[in-house]
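Everyone, describe these structure tokens:
***
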Amino acid sequence: MKQKSAPIAKAAPSRLQRELSAGILELIRAEKLAPGTRLAEVALAERLQVSRTPVRAALKLLAGRRLVRVGASRGYFVTDTAPPAPKTPGKPAPADTDRLFVAIARDRRSGRLPVDVSERDLMQRYGASRPVVQRVLAKLAEVAAVQRKPGHGWRFQPIIADAQARAESYRYRMLIEPAALLEPGFQLDPGWAAEMRRRHQDATRQTWNETASIAFFEMNAAFHEGLAAASDNRFLLVAVQQQNRLRSFANYDWTFGYQRVLVNCREHLAILDRLEAGEREAAAALMRSHLEGASKVKRVTDDPANGRRINNSK
């Protein structure tokens, strides 16, 4: 009599398969994919920054748990019922995203983070979930700070990282930004000016912390780009936009103190005052003085003049 062979134990899903399975379900939920939507391996591999083989294994794992279904053509499809939400919150908290954003900016500016990275690299380095990393990369891509590499991974774009480059950037800006205010076609949009005034006034009243630097830089960039756009000179606008992209990492990780935030806001508002009064020559002189003063500011940790400490804790 033949002995029955012992059943082969089914291998447990690998960590990568579990992570990719969760990532696929998150994509289905986030993009609200309709029942019956085909889950293409190539597209998923590109979105999840891996090869097709582990994606196929993750889809097979989900099909075995009836979280996706296998079609007649042996492809995988969204089920008729929405995948269950994870036990932990699926949507990253804004604070988590902002903290990672600042940490990446700090490490990239200091050279601790390489030019080429993948989502997995960032997840492992910062102990962050894939949705948080994906949100940060999407936000960085919006401001052209990173670019998706063909096939796999991301590449950080050039930044102003050293003292010499920073000084050259400010000298360049002192040439073009005051000149933009004196262009023949310059025309200030009253609605834009009112919105800028409100945002700057709000910034001077908020409680400062590490992640507030993100909103502050975006407001600051919008101010300088808005004035360049008002010049009606497309080349000046492109030049200012390029400088803002290069400056982004140096300013997302703000280390110039809270006092400098207040000074920036006051100087921006003074420039607006002159422009709204039709005094463009005076506004241009203030812009040059503003940029010259900013170029001389040193990085600090404490702001004793205001009794506030920049919170650099994660």
Summary: Residues 214 and 252 are 5 Å apart (CA to CA).
